[in-house]
Amino acid sequence: MSLQPFISLYRYAVEPIAPFTWFGTKVCSLDLVAVFRLCIALRQMREDLSFVRDACALLTIVFGGEAIIGPLLGILPSFVFSGVSPGLYIAAQAIVEYIPVLPSVSFGTELPLSIVDGFTRAMLLCSLIPPPVITHTSPIVASSPWALLLSSLVITNGGFFITNMFSFLEPTPLTLTTPDELKPYGWTTTDIWSAPLITGLYALLTHAQPFWAEFHTVISTALGGTGGKVGPMDPESARALCALILAVLFSTRTAKNFGLIWKKSVAEKIKIQ
What we know:
By secondary structure, this protein is mostly helical. It has helices at residues 4-13, 29-45, 51-73, 78-81, 84-97, 107-128, 130-134, 139-142, 145-165, 190-206, 210-222, 235-257, 266-272.
């Protein structure tokens, strides 16, 4: 299957758009889609609370993981030196709050959005997270595959972890509680394991670090290759492939959540209840 249509789609989606370009800010259509998708999803899953609390929850979800991993790696979080992204999220939330009625959550609406989620998440995992790590001023950090995978895991999931831990989305005062990720089988959540998996796959295909280039050669040899050095895939093709994989993963999750696959037997449901 040719990846060229998806590569072209990505190129178009990441082009800066007006009116943001008038002010020298690089906001693309894919950014707007991701912002409004998150704001709408959060409104659908929570009760109406104060705007300030909702904004804090939103910004914690988006930037919480970055705020955790940034100081550990000695990298300044993006929201510290630029207010464009925080302002964009707050503005989008204000717009979504004034929409009278939102579509109800259903399989018909969530399935196509799962495909969109795959492409927006691939942008984060392949284009936004790796560069600060692999271009780090410290050679130890820049060449560390563990630093890369850990950054992907924390940046993607850290914000939700903090939000759930402090009950931001619950209609109660903020209280410390056990996040869903730490509950039984919480680790099986697609968002948790897919983040390092996809970032690792992208690094493997593009040889983002020396470790991944060597690992790619080892895998090729184990699968019957000649044992010679394997060349890297170009970043755009690797990102498009990762987006397709994520779209499949998220679509599968949606089908599972709506009971279309892996249905539990009546006995198991009774036992769980």
